[in-house]
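2024-03-11 09:14:02 DEBUG pipeline.ingest accepted 1 chain
2024-03-11 09:14:02 DEBUG pipeline.ingest length=289
2024-03-11 09:14:03 DEBUG pipeline.predict start
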Amino acid sequence: MADPKAQLPRTTRVKNKQPADKQITAEQLLREAKEIQLEDDYKAPKQIITDAAELAEYRLSKRKQFEDLVRRVGRFNGGVWVKYATWEEQQKDFRRARSVWERALAIEYRNVSLWLKYAEMEMRHRFVNHARNVWDRAVSLLPRFELRYSEVERARATFERYVQILPSVKAWVRYAKFEMQNGEVALARRCYERAVEELGEDGQTEEFFIKFAEFEEKAREVERARAIYRYALDHIPKSYIDFEISQGERERVRLLYTRLLDRTKHVKVWLSYARFEAAPMPAPEGEDG
């Protein structure tokens, strides 16, 4: 007969009977499971809400879930902020949605995707001014950060998105200034030229023509600046006249006043012309006195 002691398994001795430094509770396990469900786009069964009180209770519960989630993983998981903000948007609570986006950007302001999704939310609901404000901030902060690390192409890509999503004189001028700051005169000029092509009549404003002409003056391209002012004479005659005065071109100024008086006999134009004739002509800019 076999010895019964030989059939029993050997007892495993526990060397360290002290409790582990880090304890895992059942509550924590449940919370982790909920996080996994949220991150994997788990779809819970549809909840039928019958009155305003139930809706308020549901929203309160959902917000508590999101707040717990962003508190735990929001610093290294931008996706949870996007889901939270999107949910608030779905509730049509845009004030809360903006608050969530702003909190996310306070942590990850370099994240281009967050800025883009934030602006897209505003555009979806036709909050154009809000969207413009988001992009204005983005193109003020992002390129500055990228340039600090010599990442010019990434900064340029940010401006490209900006002018495509919210095309405006202000957006294109900012883009051109960015290129000038990097010494890219040709690319800055191309920004102004693209603005003329893409904005059409909407871009033919006094502000735009003045900025474009001033750019050419800074680039020491006087003839280019003159051509812009000449083209924009109907919009900015005073700026064109001031430009020619700065260049010391008395006869050109007289010609411009004559052309202007052919269009209007307004007393202000006559007074301006008279003051010009009475005053000495300043030396052209750039010349020593």
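2024-03-11 09:14:41 DEBUG pipeline.report The chain has a mean pLDDT of 79.
2024-03-11 09:14:41 DEBUG pipeline.predict end
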